Amino acid sequence: MPLVPTSSIVDAAREARVGAAAFNVIHLETAEALVTAAERTGIPLILQISENCIRYHGSLLPITRATLALAEGSTARIAVHLDHITDADLVRQGITAGVGSVMVDASALPYEENVATTADLAAWCHERDAYVEAELGEVGGKDGVHAPGVRTDPDEALAFVRATGVDALAVAVGSSHAMQERTAVLDKDLITALHTALPVPLVLHGSSGVPDEELRRAIAAGMTKINISTHLVSVFTHSIRRTLGADPSLVDSRKYVKPAREAVAEEAARLLGVLGTPATVLGRYATQASARG
Question: Does 6-275 carry CATH code 3.20.20.70?
Answer without folding.
Answer: yes
